[in-house]
Amino acid sequence: MLRILKYLSKGEIAQMLVALLSIVGQVWLDLKLPDYMSDITQLVETPGSAMGDIWIAGGKMLLVSLGSVACAIVTGFIAARVGSSFTQRLRSLEFAKVESFGPAEMGHFSTASLITRSTNDITQIQMFITVGLQLIVKSPIMAVWAVMKIAGEGFEWTIATAVAVVVLLAAIAIMMAMVMPKFKTMQTLTDNINLVARENLTGLRVVRAYNAEDYQEAKFTKANKELTDTQLFTNRTMALMMPLMNTVMNGLMLAVYWIGAYLIEAAGLMDKLTVFSNMVVFSNYSVQVIMSFLLMSMVFVLWPRADVSAQRVLEVLDTEPAVRPGHDTTASAATGTAADGPSRGEVEFRDVSFTYPDSREPMLEHISFTAKPGQTVAFIGSTGSGKSTLINLVPRLYDATSGQVLVDGRDVREYDLKALRDRIGYVPQQSVLFRGTVASNISYGDDVSGGDVHGDSDGKADRIRAAADVAQATEFIDRMDDGFDSAVAQGGSNVSGGQKQRISIARAVFRHPEILIFDDSFSALDFRTDREVRDALAREAKGSTKLIVAQRIGTIMNADQIIVLDDGKVVGHGTHKELLDGCEVYQQIAESQLSKAELTA
Fold first, then answer.
1. Cα–Cα distances in angstroms (integers) from residue 419 to residues 85, 116, 250, 408, in the given order
2. Cα 73 to chain center, whole Å?
3. Among the four 115, 422, 511, 560, which has the fewest Cβ within 10 Å?
4. Burial of 600 (0-12, 13-18, 19+ CB in 10 A)
5. Where is the signal peptide (predicted)?
6. pTM for the whole thing?
7. Range(s) for CATH 1.20.1560.10 in the chain?
8. Does domain 429-512 have CATH number 3.40.50.300?
9. Range 3-12, long-range pairs (CB < 8 A, 24+ positions)
């Protein structure tokens, strides 16, 4: 928990120092109250005391109380302000860190866990800073100060207070030992319940199609029950704390007055008033001592969950992405220049091998090819042959285990990630749309690169329509109620799979990138639309290097190069005709998809 406080700003630390002074002032004022109460008691018990003296002592007591309230308000205001600003920064840092993660890091942290860490865990930290830090400072100051006040008031009363404190600390230690392991379990179970809920919502259509509602409900009920049982155990255990506090406090008060009665009875006539006054003062101070330990117990309630949450947040913040940015920022699509010459979009693989993290078997072995500027290079092979893995090495979603991936003659690891990815238009296997409009989704990459998500630069509307024309998306977009301004729901749930894929293609084309990557991005298109999109790409993106992963030979048969992969190795490399003549794997794929006339054409 303490390690996460390094993210506090200097301004927040200064505010916390002011809050510390305010807490010290509040404790001092609180501990002055018994003194004035003692004065009032003596004045009331002393015959002939002037009423004005009693009013003066009472007025001082009132002013001290108001001062204590003012200090508490200042402390609470500062704590709330620091807690909010600090956790806002943590959320931003965590979001930025997650954005830098590649697939390897995302595989380590589940999506549900990352959501919990950036919401629930940070809320626990905020609660601790807002409430807990006040208590951590206030309770020991109050305890030490109060003990110093009562130390000379009476040996018997001091012993009684010490016994009460020991009983209290022992009980708190036992309860903490019981619940501490459960707090980490609770956070893990919260991740699990989020995972089950998210899985169910994402796959709702499949769940309904298979009448699996009862099965999913049973999974959720199991996860929910595990979390509930753990929460009940911790809450029931912690619920014992307040009754225990009250019992100890009431027992101590009873002991103070019982001891006081004996001391008053044993005192001389002139000393009885002094002993009685001391008893009143001591009873108030003893309450302050117990209250300080009560505040400490509240810290013990907040600390474990906040500590676990802080560790989980730090686990994200401390994770260094496997893909580290290079330092060459000169190669960007905007400037059109590379570090050592014109920016052209040439892609070369030199003896590239790749093994996934935590895997023993290589996914790719000794891959070599060159895609010249403007060429179309296609990749085909059976499921799991490494096609998607191969093209993911170009935008550095992963880094090659050995060998080199080069863009315009320079290793991609030397490029700044932003500069590299500004040159690439990427259409993933699973099309992703963002909540907004059709237009904002098509211009998404350009808007983000320019730092203006909502801007509308000159000619942008024409560029958006031109990109949609290439992707054969204009027709269905124009049929929508608001055309390009039509709303797109989260995840693109209000458009079909083919429409989603065409908008994704338009988004990649919109940037006029030097390199276009299509990861099985035509699979949801019918054959006619597939052909029209490919023809439009050949016309409008003829200067871009196109890397295409496909399952259908019809999509790639006109490619300049076709690379056939099998079990991570290149087993064929050439044109469609060359591979039909000399590659057995390609022949098998072709025979399963093409007619005899097409095979002999």
1. 32, 32, 70, 13
2. 32
3. 560
4. exposed
5. none
6. 0.74
7. 2-317
8. yes
9. 3/310, 3/314, 4/90, 4/125, 4/310, 4/313, 4/314, 7/86, 7/89, 7/90, 7/93, 8/82, 8/86, 9/85, 9/86, 9/89, 12/82, 12/85, 12/86
Amino acid at 131: V
Give residue 152's pLDDT.
Answer: 64
2-317 to CATH, choices 1.10.10.10, 2.60.120.620, 1.20.1560.10, 3.20.20.10: 1.20.1560.10
Average pLDDT taken over every residue of the chain: 85
Q: Which ranges in the chain are annotated with CATH 3.40.50.300? A: 326-423+514-601, 429-512
Residues 213 and 198: their CA atoms lie apart, in Å, by 14
In the prediction, which pLDDT does 595 show? 74
Say whether pLDDT at 73 is over 80. yes
Domain 326-423+514-601: which CATH number of 3.40.50.300, 3.90.25.10, 3.40.640.10, 3.40.50.12780: 3.40.50.300
56 burial type by CB count under 10 A (0-12 exposed, 13-18 middle, 19+ buried): middle
Q: Which of 597 and 56 is assigned the larger pLDDT? A: 56
Mean pLDDT of 376-394: 92
Can you read off the two tokens belonging to residue 54? 């009693």
Q: What percent of the chain has pLDDT over 90?
A: 37
Q: Which helix (H) or strand (E) segment is 196 a member of?
A: helix 155-202
Residues 6 or more apart whose Cβ sits within 8 Å of residue 555? 378, 522, 530, 534, 548
